[in-house]
Amino acid sequence: MSLKLITPDWPAPKTIRTLVTTRSDGVSQGAYKGLNLGDHVGDSWVDVAQNRTLVREALPSEPHWLKQVHGTTVAYADRLKELVEADAAVAREMNTVCAVLTADCLPVLFCATDGSVVGAAHAGWRGLAAGVLEQTVAVMAHPPEGVMAWLGPAIGPTAFEVGDEVRQAFVAKLPLTASAFRSASPGKWLADIYQLARLRLQHMGVMQIYGGDFCTYREATRFYSYRRDGVTGRMGSLIWIVGE
Q: How many domains in the chain?
């Protein structure tokens, strides 16, 4: 089966490969219809396994899936032997596949401009506010000016309504992030998760930022969305360094 994938539009080194799935294709049914890669959302494990097999055919090795908890822990994918609790992964060895699952949260793919290290981060608002992107770049141990980031499919700025506590969590740490919130009603704001990520990345010195023009909530036939559907699947964003 030929999968309908998203190809990141960024000037990554030729040795870097990415794979970003949609909900198209796949064998899952019902609320999970399509290429659901999440094994923790109530879908049939048999169907999830078949979907992961379809994706695995396009990869150099088994991806290192994570037990994501909206935190800031970054795993060293090169060393992983089992499932770990983390929301990001970094790899330096060839053919080690970093992977995150999302359905409204923001997936961010990273690579060094010299192709020496890659990373993938799952950034829901809690993880983003707590510093998961900053921690990922820190673990990459590469100068921020030599790191590029691609912002994958996430809930768009016209659909992501949040409360005062979410806005305060960001503004308290970086006041200029106030520009990423637009008043929707008393105590409610429309948050631009892409702009929040850009501002946090730029603040740490990462200036080469791409992507950020999707909306998982609005594009129901293309993307899973937890906020839209509640019970739903998960999409994958994966990155690795090409090896022989």
A: 1
Domain containing residue 72: 14-155+213-241
The answer for residues whose C-beta is within 8 angstroms of residue 14's C-beta and 6 or more apart is 115, 242
The answer to whether residue 133 sits within a structural domain is yes
Single pTM value for the model: 0.97
| Spatial separation of the C-alpha atoms in residues 78 and 98, rounded to whole Å | 9
- Among 7, 75, 6, 9, which Cα is nearest to 209's? 9
Is 172 part of any domain? no
94 CA to centre of own chain: 21
What CATH number does the domain containing 77 carry?
3.60.140.10
Which tens digits make up the pLDDT trace of 164-176?
999 999 999 999 9
Neighbours of 231 (CB within 10 A): 11
103-134 in b/e form (b: 16+ CB < 10 A) is bbbbbbbbbbbeeebbbbbbbbbbbbbbbbbb
pLDDT in tens, 193-219: 999 999 999 999 999 999 999 999 999
